[in-house]
Write a structure and sequence with these properties.
- By secondary structure, the chain is mostly beta strands.
- It has a single domain, classed as SH3 type barrels (Roll), CATH 2.30.30.30.
- The protein is built from no helices and ten strands.
- It has a six-stranded antiparallel sheet with strand order 6-3-2-1-7-8, with no helix packed on it. A two-stranded antiparallel sheet has the order 4-5. The chain has a two-stranded antiparallel ribbon with strand order 9-10.
- It is elongated and about 55 Å long.
Length: 101
């Protein structure tokens, strides 16, 4: 998976299609990511002695194939490529050949 925490992505499929946000968590074993502000679901939580219960809105994981990284130069969605720079493998945007941090 070429996505990392902090990458700015756009959702390309599903109910949150077109929304942009940063990746807050990467679930590599399941090939899924959690994007802030996207794929909001309601979770019913039972209260206990310390916490109150209620209906919480949380961000659910999205499959990694349903998000694309945003090109830092053109601000449009792009694929990710790799190049070798100073004996180090770095990620680059395919559209503008710009380095992705």
């Amino acid at each position: 998976m070429n996505l990392k925490v902090g990458d700015k992505v756009i959702v390309i499929a599903g109910s949150s299609k077109g929304k942009e946000g940063k990746i807050t968590k990467v679930l590599r074993a399941e090939n899924r990511v959690i994007v802030e502000g996207c794929n909001i679901v309601k979770k019913h939580k039972k209260g206990n002695g310390q916490e109150t219960g209620g209906i919480l809105e949380i961000e659910a994981p999205i499959h990694a194939s349903n998000v694309m990284i945003i090109d830092p130069k053109t601000k449009k969605r792009t694929r990710i490529g790799h190049t070798i720079e100073n004996d180090k493998k770095v990620r680059v945007a395919k559209k503008s050949n710009e380095k992705i941090d």
